[in-house]
Specification:
D-Maltodextrin-Binding Protein, domain 2, disordered C terminus, alpha+beta, elongated, 3 helices, three-stranded antiparallel β-sheet
Length: 151
């Protein structure tokens, strides 16, 4: 955590697949993944979670952009992980256990700032970002200390 960081919430990471229903399993084949290029925290979480569960995986597609990730997942090239925030209609969250997928960890959402004291314009922008983030948090998100008042 950076020195001027504010904890906003804990969000459940989820397996994300195409909006159309997927097959019941991957028949022992390596699970195809669609992830950001390395280094990426979510990429590491996905691969380490699958490794700990003893599930084979393969990198089906990687992209430097979220738009590329969404397009590849929507096309059925593989699964990715994200939180419930901002999912396009072309993809959907998949419950743990479906397709034999393991539970993913909670992910921390922080608001970082450069300095302890912000000038008035930057302080107002931080307030707007915090309000927008809290307004979009899905059910089940655990708020950081003192943030329920913002919601």
């Amino acid at each position: 955590i950076l020195p001027y960081s504010r904890h906003v919430a804990e969000l459940q990471a989820r397996w994300i697949g195409p909006a159309k229903p997927m097959e019941a399993g991957h028949n022992g084949e390596a699970l195809p993944l669609v992830l950001f290029e390395a280094p990426c925290l979510l990429r590491t979480v996905a691969t380490e979670t699958l490794d700990r569960a003893g599930l084979a995986w393969r990198m089906a597609f990687s992209s430097p952009s979220l738009g590329g990730i969404w397009a590849a997942v929507a096309a059925g090239l593989g699964l990715t992980i994200r939180t419930d925030i901002g999912l396009p209609a072309t993809v959907r969250a998949i419950a743990p256990g479906v397709l034999g997928l393991p539970l993913l960890p909670m992910m921390a959402l922080h608001l970082h700032q450069k300095d302890a004291e912000l000038d008035p314009v930057a302080a107002r922008l931080a307030e707007i970002l915090l309000e927008a983030a809290v307004d979009t948090l899905p059910e089940g998100a655990r708020f950081g200390e003192g943030l329920r008042a913002v919601a």
